[in-house]
Amino acid sequence: MAAALLGGASVSTPVSADELDGRIDEIVAEGTSQSEVMLLAHELMDGIGGRLTNSPALHRAQGWAADKFAGWGLTNIHTEPFLFGPGWSFDNAYAQMIEPRHVDMTMIPVAWTPGTAEPIRAEIVVAPMSKPEHFDEWRGKLSGKIVLVSLPGTGDEPTRPAFRRLESKDIAERDRFEEETYDPDEANRRLERVRNPMLLDEFLAAEGALAWVKKSYRDGKLVHGSGYTHWPDLQPSLPAFELAAEDYRRLARLAKTGTPPTIEVYSDARFHDEDLEAENLFAEIPGTDRSAGYVMAGAHFDSWVAGDGAVDNGAGSVAIMEAARILSQLGVRPKRTIRFALWSGEEQGLHGSLAYVRAHLADRAAVPGDLIEDRYGWRYRWPLEKKPGHDDLKAYFNIDNGSGRLRGIYAEGNLAAARLLKSWLSPFAPLGAEQVVTSDTSGTDHVYMQAVGAPAFQFVQDPLDYGSRLHHTSADTLDHMRPEDMRQMSVVLAGMLYQAAMSDEELPRVPFPAEPNRTDPFAYDDPDED
Amino acid sequence: MAAALLGGASVSTPVSADELDGRIDEIVAEGTSQSEVMLLAHELMDGIGGRLTNSPALHRAQGWAADKFAGWGLTNIHTEPFLFGPGWSFDNAYAQMIEPRHVDMTMIPVAWTPGTAEPIRAEIVVAPMSKPEHFDEWRGKLSGKIVLVSLPGTGDEPTRPAFRRLESKDIAERDRFEEETYDPDEANRRLERVRNPMLLDEFLAAEGALAWVKKSYRDGKLVHGSGYTHWPDLQPSLPAFELAAEDYRRLARLAKTGTPPTIEVYSDARFHDEDLEAENLFAEIPGTDRSAGYVMAGAHFDSWVAGDGAVDNGAGSVAIMEAARILSQLGVRPKRTIRFALWSGEEQGLHGSLAYVRAHLADRAAVPGDLIEDRYGWRYRWPLEKKPGHDDLKAYFNIDNGSGRLRGIYAEGNLAAARLLKSWLSPFAPLGAEQVVTSDTSGTDHVYMQAVGAPAFQFVQDPLDYGSRLHHTSADTLDHMRPEDMRQMSVVLAGMLYQAAMSDEELPRVPFPAEPNRTDPFAYDDPDED
């Protein structure tokens, strides 16, 4: 029905202001009174649950999403693979203190560490170590032990409310243009973060330790289970567990004052190595003008598995899907193709969106034989070379800041784009989304697009309890998604996509990146620094 | 050594202001630089853990505390029993969703419900019911099911900081004299709260249900496990579990939109019915003037068992013990006996302290054959009769508001006592404890003492994260006790006890209670009201 309204729109006729307003009204109506976003969320989070990259659960979710896209009439539904490493999953695991008394501890196996076959029972040793420089102190002391590798620390004192919405002034504070800093050492830090757990595993295995245990980085009996040893041809030897901070510190205190406790750990974790490639999933509403390029919205579909991957990032994923449903249901025929992307491998380092960038936008030389260096050092290698499709991407909107409503958009340092973004956002001021701020954001799938000069943006979202207790935790379930927020998010996203796809004017682009100068042109190398 | 300093103090010589100041200084020094309170906390919380009334763990803890008291040279260390019902404990339990997918749910068996012998696997039915009026709707629909009896509700939005200290103005707001309300219906509400779970158990068992499940009343994967079916001659039939709110609501959502999930529950819970009497534990520093009466400090030693019973109320318990240690270490010879009380049965309804009141202070007629009515209706029966020891109790200080430092004291409606309390508290102003406020407080072991006109008080404490995430929860572990706060608490308590025991002046007492008039002398009974 709605499709007939726009049936006469042709390739070259600009949409009138009245038509645009009418379409926005329809989007709001469809996305609020006819919303399906919470039912999508329910099927994904409750029905399928946590979705670790390349795991059976993520594959199930991808099949489910592809079916939904197909049912709504989207086109060009397809996946694009990238080398990742095996999947990993577990069903049953536990950690119990056996001596000096029985305690069933709150735990999760660390992702991409092996299961235990049989339960492992052993005395613990508290040996805080995070990098090779720490290993020597513990050499010869770990054989037959379960090794607690985190510093226990003390309980936290959370003095900010767990649940928070932004005031206008909070948003305005984000209107700060900052020079991009260029720090090649950042690449080394990233590499170490990924490689040190492997070196730890090697060291502990060589020492005859039986398993290792780390402390949750949040108090309140929440666990996360994040781990990074998923690379092809890599097989860590030792089972590893993350314990709730309270359970970890109890063990550490007992070990400090008396006989080290004996604990028993078990995990049926397994690797899925039948296919080492993970996939991004795409679907489209085709544009009427093939020369006009495309606009895209994306969210990572993969999650950690302590919870159901709800606000990180089932929320963003079902908002993307609901925006697709709304626009498809209204029968829009946009000038530019609207592409919907559900990324994978985000949680392990934005691998899926980086693969997309390298395939479609711009790439640097690969590092043969060292996939880790190839991935984490990618941003710091020069030259960068444009792919033919680079200029076709006219706008990218990423959602990955929880389930809070959209309050505005980050121009991400692209000052020239702010005016147009402001105009597209203006219809949604009554829904609470109106501020355009300059700051740039990091840590999710728009980053590598920005790094190659594509116009890629994130929204400002109400934080709710994302950072305080949900991000990657066992409490990240649908319970903490707000239906009104999710509906608003879907509606605003659909509206932004539609306007970006119809706009006569393209978003201004930043210059294609060249190797940056040193920040301080007068600096000498310090011989004492690595 | 310190004992020698006071060796010359005799029965009738008032302590001089200088002597008193010196003693306070010693208390502060001993309780800070020589503190043992956190080591006591460690032995109790980490070493023994949660202490359900009349359970083996509480018995171990009582033996441990008695040994400590004896080691410090306290006297008259003894227990006083009261009829309670069996103990209860469990080591292993789990709840898993089996269909539509595997989820290991966060749970705890409900206290004083039986174990399962074998794992129970069945489909759930969501049948919210809390009292007999709700049962009819579900008759005939529960056979062979695991019944979810709570309304699922939606996720919480905590907009106050989890961790909080009081400003002076927060404390001043508690300086409110309020008339005591007398509401006999309160007795009925209490009775129903205790009896309804038994009626629920009977109904569900008669219907052929296999087990029941309730929802945690806190979000964030915290569980509590509180239950009240501990009475002698009572044996509930069905195993019961409390699920984390997130896990409970996931089940409920799935049941609402599709085939009800199948879950499996297991618990090795067992009753300990070799002795149906629970015990309070006492220790004393004897007074030099037997006619001067005694002062007392108390905390409940029992806890729930989801965590280690740390801030509720291991904290109060070890503060009581540390105050005893400090005063004993200093060799004080107080005029009045100082009695230290570690109550039991508090969590199930202040049973231990009520038993003390009935034995030593004042009592009402018993209700033969109905222990529940006898206990929960006690406060509302008349006449009340004084026991010979009633006037001997000159001051009672209760600690049961978490591990936050003492910031002042509630005069608990006893306006005449405020001046003396203020004077005793004044040395501790530099430690942050100085305000005396009029409001009364409820819900713990001083309540029944107040109810018989004894001068019984609680301190104002910094709340920290007691109410937000620790009270009765699985996160109630030593991690969330602040060492500086615990040392301050022990010092101030020791100082208050010492001054109360030495004071020439006694705390003013409220009149011995008589049956109150109706609040509204002109009210008629409403025939529509029960």
UniProtKB/TrEMBL annotation, chains A, B:
InterPro entries: CPQ, Peptidase_M28. It comes from Pacificimonas flava. Residues 507-530 are annotated as: Disordered. GO terms for molecular function: carboxypeptidase activity; metal ion binding; metallodipeptidase activity. Residues 280-493 form the Peptidase M28 domain. The keyword Signal applies. This is Carboxypeptidase Q. Keywords: Carboxypeptidase, Endoplasmic reticulum, Glycoprotein, Golgi apparatus, Hydrolase, Lysosome, Metal-binding, Metalloprotease, Protease, Secreted, Signal, Zinc, Zymogen. Homodimer. The monomeric form is inactive while the homodimer is active. It is found in: Endoplasmic reticulum; Golgi apparatus; Lysosome; Secreted. Pfam families: Peptidase_M28. GO terms for cellular component: extracellular region; lysosome. Its main location: endoplasmic reticulum. One of its GO terms (biological process) is proteolysis.
